[in-house]
Please model this.
Amino acid sequence: MKLKLAVAFGILFLLTVSCDTQKTRSMNIYWIDVEGGTATLIVTPSGQSVLMDAGWPTEEERDAKRIVAAMENAGITEIDYFLVSHFHDDHIGGLPALAKRVPIGQFYDYGNGIEQNNESIQKGLDDYIATAKENRHITVAGDKLPLTGIDFTFVASHGGVLNQGLANPESNTRCDNATFPSEFNLENSQSLGYILSLGEFQFLNLGDLTENIQHKLACPTNLLGIVDLYQVPHHGDDLAPQLNIAIAPTVAVINNGAHKGGGPEGFEVISAIPSIKEIWQLHRGLTTDDAHSASAQKTANLTEENDAGHWIKATVSADGSSYTIENGRNGHSEQYLTK
Ligand SMILES: [Zn+2]
Model:
């Protein structure tokens, strides 16, 4: 009897300790360097993982290896939710190589790809469908991912956006004379976008969403409210100021490559956001000048493509009250308070 009691108390003790550890765990976000593509990994306080996009297809399976390295750093061995923002090569190309290496649970996308006359897009879509099999989910804006302790909402999908604002939508004075190209028939315009909240902390990732859909999110009222941390859409190019100013991010991360994205016009839009405190960048754009680039201290990779592939990593406190951004190359980090 005494032994049984001792065992029961032992189990209770272990449960209490593990619950406490869970409560105090932070959330991590990794912007993995896939050389101008995208692969953004989130590991939640309860250990669930969400990866949007898997980088390029390369013979050496470079991007899948880099994703696995980030997973090892985060202490996870499988991806619970894989999201593809859209079916361009730089976002879906690395999936088959990744799926060979690690188990992937559920797959989310916007639909069947609208540039199917494009050979590489059709291949990306075919490979995706073959990998996802019966675990494929087609989303619409407003759908949620069932994460523990995190509110995760898709805000854009297949050219559509939320029907209702997430927080009391306010009319947006920058909408009236806004001009932008109409790009409804391009793959980028179909991108999935999501916002996630942990406590008061909010992170926004809009994939490669085009200016006309950014406009729909912002006008006539801003449907997204304000955010803390922002992955700048489309590798830092083609940004609608009426959205980028309205969401009032504190910190922006540009996931560009040495020769892709990170252009001066986008950098000017982000720099001009009154709320912005800091811009971090995955790569130095090698044809962009200093004035339109993040500081070297806050840039993860300074040289040519196929370099060391350093990431940028965010650590969000378990209660969402603050977050730290760290440069994987030099260890430089800065902490910010959630709004
Ligand atoms: Zn892209």
